[in-house]
Design a protein that fits this description.
Length: 305
């Protein structure tokens, strides 16, 4: 009998624990409807104290804990600059800290010095009229995990489907709500100096690599052009020399025959000259007056005396 009571008590405790955990998860926002909308920002221009970090977003909790310990009554804020689906976790960049003032209110000098004492830096974000945003209940520590699990996929799909230029992602923890905000304008004003510096260095590194690649490609192309020119010149020289050599050979082969023919035909050339002279001279004379061949006399022949 005592064993049955003990088993029933254990079962009751297990069921009670299960229901408690389920209640906490439900209270944390497990089935809360996520409504993504575009409109005006829920916050005005703000001044923040932050620390810039590079690494996995899971490690941001340490900075949030530190900033909350310095100003427990202040709202917390985080800004995430990289998409963890496209950028390795160790290269993701973010800031985390506290909101010191909002709107026309100025933060006190004591508060500024207190945060600066612990290594925080001061920066201001402008008021933005158009943002993509949603909210999620911040009732327990589980709310943060549930929000990240449910909000970011829907927010990313909303931006992608509408082809919006929205970045970076802001998380503002205020009271019992977490505000997820993504600016549609003045995005550059949400980049802290450290982030701009890393962007500049990365851009210079990419430009240097492109210049080096261009230099290598240019050198290869110049060598290819030089080689092709040398090849074409060698081919043209060889082509022009070959017919000349062949012509010289032909001349050398027929030199004996040509000389003998010229020597042997010397008298025929003289006869040809005589015939030409006999035909041309009468035509010239007839242009002046009619002179018979007897009156004209013998036609002098070149070479006769």
């Amino acid at each position: 009998m005592s064993e049955f009571i003990l088993l029933a008590l254990i079962s009751f405790l297990f069921l009670f624990l299960l229901l408690t955990v389920l209640g906490v998860v439900l209270y944390s926002g497990l089935f809360t409807e996520v409504i993504i909308r575009t409109g005006s920002s829920p916050i005005k221009n703000i001044t923040i104290a932050y620390k810039f970090k590079q690494g996995s977003y899971k490690d941001s909790g340490a900075v949030f804990t530190e900033s909350c310990s310095i100003g427990p009554k202040l709202s917390s804020i985080g800004v995430y600059y990289d998409d963890p689906k496209q950028v390795p976790a160790e290269k993701c960049r973010y800031i985390a800290g506290s909101v010191l003032s909002e709107g026309e209110e100025k933060p006190s000098e004591e508060l500024l010095k207190l945060y600066e004492k612990y290594g925080f830096k001061i920066f201001s974000f402008p008021a933005v009229t158009h943002v993509v945003m949603t909210t999620f209940p911040h009732n327990t520590f589980l709310s943060i995990f549930l929000a990240n699990w449910r909000v970011y996929p829907q927010m990313g799909s909303y931006i992608k489907e509408r082809k919006l230029c929205a970045h970076p992602f802001l998380e503002l923890y205020r009271g019992d709500l977490i505000y997820y905000i993504c600016p549609l304008a003045r995005q550059g004003d949400f980049y802290v100096p450290e982030m701009r510096e890393t962007e500049r260095r990365q851009k210079e590194k990419e430009e240097d690599s492109e210049d080096r690649q261009t230099d290598i490609t240019g050198a290869d192309s110049v060598s290819d052009i030089t080689e092709s020119r040398e090849t074409s010149m060698a081919t043209s020289v060889a082509t022009s020399v070959a017919p000349q050599e062949q012509e010289d050979d032909n001349r050398s082969d027929g030199s004996g025959k040509g000389s003998s023919d010229s020597v042997g035909s010397g008298s025929s050339f003289e006869d040809l000259d005589l015939e030409v002279i006999e035909e041309v001279v009468p035509a010239v004379v007839n242009k002046g007056q009619n002179v018979t061949s007897e009156e004209q006399g013998p036609i002098p022949v070149e070479g006769e005396e």
